[in-house]
Design goal:
With about 240 residues, the protein is of the alpha/beta class. The protein has a single domain, classed as Carbamate kinase. Strands 4-3-5-2-1-6-8-9-7 form a nine-stranded mixed sheet, with helices on both faces. The two termini are about 15 Å apart. Bound molecules: uridine-5'-diphosphate. Uridine-5'-diphosphate binds next to helix 2 and helix 3.
Length: about 240
Amino acid sequence: MPDTQPRYKKILLKMSGEVLMGDALFGIDTKTIEAVAEDIKEVIEYGIELCLVIGGGNIFRGVSLAGKGMDRANADYMGMLATVMNALALQGALEKVGVYTRVQSAIPMEAVCEPYIRRRALRHLEKGRVVIFAAGLGAPFFTTDTPAALRTAEMGCDALFKGTSVDGVYTADPKKDPSAQRYESLSYQEVLAKDLRVMDASAIALMRDNKTPIVVFSIRERGNFLKVLKGQGVFTTIA
Ligand code: UDP
């Protein structure tokens, strides 16, 4: 049932780096990042405490060079640095539209941003600042899904919103299979058993253990973030 009351007070938004590419094949599209910043602003003005985890796939993913013979751990550190670049780009776009932000990195780099300090991040959220968590877990052999689930728990968020280019979880890839059906809701166990690849299994398991829902929606449609937050429009809930 659509409603207009906030269902959640504090949430984490996980975006894949690819969201920032727009229609390009690589990098950051300024028009896209500005539009995403406007959508985030709407959610902040609605009174939600928001933190963000952004991937790095639009710039670099460790597995891609590891597959060509590079040391996996080294390649993953490069991937983590890509997430810092995206975090800074998003910080710039958000501050341009008047949203206060802090970037905290799991790999300390004081000249660029704050180190990750849980209690300080909580204080930023209380003050209405958007906290962007960069550099994943600071450890290789992960993607940004698991840090997104971990920070959701650490920050005491009511839900993890996963903003993608698709409007929910489907039985098959809807871009390749026109008969694919969207799920309204799924259990964590179904996602794992059906190997639906919404997020890494370690992230799904962490969300399950903390009994926190995941909302999968399209962040490519303008204005959709707030709409979905209000329980309107199209999305899939995993709980
Ligand atoms: N990464 C890592 N540890 C982490 C988070 C990320 O090693 O805790 C590296 C890994 O190489 C990953 C890359 O950073 O592929 C970029 O993150 P991700 O693949 O999640 O980006 P997305 O697909 O969400 O754009």
